[in-house]
Model the fold of this input.
Amino acid sequence: QVQLVESGGGLVQPGESLRLSCAAFGFTLDNVAIGWFRQAPGKEREGVSCISSNDGSTYYGESVKGRFTISKDNAKNTMYLQMNSLKPEDTAVYYCTATPRVFRQCRLFRYEYDYWGQGTQVTVSS
Done:
């Protein structure tokens, strides 16, 4: 059974860091595209970052570029999102996602991903 399980969310102050983890079950991360999305209250789900399946290249949304880092550990079958210099506007439910479909370059379009985690809350507030 395919499953993604997130962890690591919580409440932090502006400027602090947090690392989200997402463990995959039922498939391996070494041959799929992976990504992170987030959804704030009253807003559409937006793409944060992704890693392409063919060459491992990464892509980041403009609002997180330079502050967030996506990575994965194939041995642990787990993906991560390191979030630094957090801002109140980063507050959202964060979702990990993956797809076995092959694209030349991963993109942050929700419809291109097939497997989704349950989400983990990140709150940035003083």
Remarks:
- The two ends are 40 Å apart (CA to CA).
- Residues 97 and 125 are 26 Å apart (CA to CA).
